[in-house]
Amino acid sequence: MLDSENKELLEIFFEEAQNLVDTLEENIMSLEDDPNNAETIDEIFRAAHTLKGGSASVDMMELSGFTHVVEDVFDAIRDNKLKICNDLVDLLLNALDVIKGMLDARLNGDVYLQDVSELKNKLRRFLGDEHQTVSEISLENINDDEFLLSSRELSDMCEVVGLGQKVLKVSIYFNKDNPMATIAGIQMFQALKDLGPILYTVPNYEQLIADKFLRRVDYYLISLNNNTIEEKIKLSGVALSYAIDEFDIDSELAKTEAIERNTVVYDTLSEGKVRLSNDELISLRERVGDAKLFEVKLNFNKDNPMSTISGLQMLQALKSLGEVYKSIPEDLLADKFFDFIVYYLISDTSVDSISKKVDLSDVVVSFDINEVDLKNIKDVNLNTEVGSYASSKESKKTTVNVNLIRIDSKRIDSILNLVSEAVISKSTYNQINSDMTSFLYSFNYFYDYQESFRNSFLVDLKIIFKDMGLELESSLENQIANLVEHKLDRTLQDMVGLRDLLFKILQDSRFASGRLSRIITDLHESVLKTRMLPVSSIFSRFARVVRDLSKKLGKIVELSTEGEDTEVDKSVIDDLVDPLMHCVRNSMDHGLETADERLSKGKDKAGHIILRAKNEGNVISIEIEDDGRGIDPDIIRQKSIEKGLIKEDMVLSESEILNLIFEPGFSTASQITDVSGRGVGLDVVKNNIKKLNGTIVIDSKVNVGTTFKIKLPLTLVIVQGLLVKSGSEIYVIPLNSVLETHRISEENIKLLENDHEVYNLREEVISVLRLDELFNINNDQNLYEKFLIVISVNDKKAGIVVDSILGEEDFVVKPIKDKYASSPGIVGATTLGNGKVVLIIDVFRLFDLKDMKG
């Protein structure tokens, strides 16, 4: 394991590993339904390949070695050497569980200790004899050819090695008589890895830890000091001899690719397929013209003294009959014996003439000669396998440029907190504008008063003099008039200028405030989007769950999803998995019938579960729907009475009865299973959803199906809300629950016999909740007119009565701590622009609060 200095690298690896595991699971599941999907196979292979390489880079060799086996399986599938079947999918999913276990162990600071050899052997048996287990290989008699790296491994090495770095191949021969002989290979691995990253070992890491003696091990590592390596080897005391060579990856890759191409081609020859591509055949049709194209396959005599040059001899012989376009294999100059060779001859001769020419040779033991029909190229069974290697190599060069930056979620939270503070500052700015507007109104009133005083001053003065029995002389009147006009007019003119200036400042402030508001809103939405994840990130997990449970329960179940692109805040996503999991398991266990039961009801033998998500403004709606038995409300009611949850004479709607299943300890299951039905769970689901400020209800019809409906806020950080006042207290009501508002009088509210207040909303009677009564507010304002805010909770409407509505804004939700955290009916607090702290109402809990109040 890497040291603490590489903690960041480990965090990156674990995050990527989880994404890769999710990709593997999702695609393996889809491969079961579409086994020939080349894109899916390639994506699985890439994920396994990346996971293998990544785990090796952080020294998780047990994970790298195990994933290597999984990668080999998909390599064989990709090359059409292995077919997908249900048993193989089961095995691969089991392997994926092991990979998850290995990752979890490392996350907890441990190493996965369970024996996985049996699972690896099962995977290898699917691969055939060429992928033997460690115990099946005679390791003491490995020849040099078995120490060669494959082209894929060499290509991987090219990707890892940086510019200016060199790879050393360290070959070590071990002493069998050493008491530690069976662990010498892994001992040397531990010693050498301190000098630089070990890219590959031959035999591989699994064989090094297999507690068997290995005569020789090749280590490929990046290192700068040969002398240090020699010191490590000598100090180990387990090496008989060793060799250290600089390894030319490019040169070795070219050689290996040539060998593998010949191997692929030669395997193809033995299957008797046409060896030329469609493009070659089309070009040859023009090139051959009036002549003919012959395919000449010759089988050679190995015991002939000239066997290694037999192919070259026959090449010269066939050239006397025409042009030899191609031979397979092509490298006939090599001093190597080929069991058979295929030549393509362009000639105007006949099959008989070629046969006579070949038959005269003593190096050929048998032959097969055919004329290739170039007129019907489309009917030729082209060998796609010959070109598969080249195409796969080309695909490795294809890259997708994605501009991604990895950011710690804590940094995003920090930015979001700053944005939240900006929202509060925006509210402060709006409050200042509001105060300035009020001041301007007051200023205008004062100006009007001064102007009125100016106009009435002389008249009022004359009246005063007259009441005193005095007469105001005209000269004095003129002096006073001039004085008033001079002084007051100037004051009024100054006031006009000041008023205009204040009005302009207010206009500019409003414009700047509006612009700031838009910027903060855009910034807020942008930052929120960085925290948003599509629900597909959790929906994708349920394909495996449904598959495993359907087998366990003996049911046929099909899962489909809708609205996977709907995005939810990451904090919500993390806490949503368990509630959804329980609902799905409940549908699988209790809701859906067996195939025979469904057929007897006239349904498809396969049950269906739909996971559906959609965005409804500031609310996310998630549904889990099945087409199973449904829930009988009569049974629910009877069980609830037996458990003392309701009284026998209580009048409840069908919806209210169905939602009793969310009460603690409720269960209608006659048997306890390990899938569901323990009598706990749905109440926990409801509580978990409540913690997310959400709601969950159930809708069901007997023999039609059941739907769990979950509604969640888009984000838990900032909400749009109505600022309302009741008595002397101010509250925020989240807008996502508000349907409409009405100005009403007390006469509009009716009192029923049970002291239950209601309001007639367009012929629909809804309950009335008085905010001052619910929160014990001292309200001595006996207002004739009030406001009714109509809310919707779990498809049920109600009206909240308040004294006044102060406005609509964005509010930053701050959690309530300590003794206030469990306050019923309150979801959080926020700070207004004037610095006042107000509470945010939890409308979903208001009904519970009213019941508590009696």
TrEMBL record:
Keywords: ATP-binding, Chemotaxis, Coiled coil, Cytoplasm, Kinase, Nucleotide-binding, Phosphoprotein, Transferase, Two-component regulatory system. Residues 483-716 form the Histidine kinase domain. CDD domains: CheA_reg, HATPase_CheA-like, HPT. Residues 718-852 form the CheW-like domain. PROSITE patterns: CHEW, HIS_KIN, HPT. Gene3D superfamilies: Histidine kinase CheA-like, homodimeric domain (1.10.287.560), Histidine kinase CheA-like, P2 response regulator-binding domain (3.30.70.1110), Histidine kinase-like ATPase, C-terminal domain (3.30.565.10), HPT domain (1.20.120.160), SH3 Domains (2.30.30.40). The keyword Cell inner membrane does not apply. Residues 7-34 form a coiled coil. The modification Phosphohistidine is found at H49. One of its GO terms (cellular component) is cytoplasm. This is Chemotaxis protein CheA. It comes from the Bacteria. One of its GO terms (molecular function) is ATP binding. Residues 2-106 form the HPt domain. GO terms for biological process: chemotaxis.
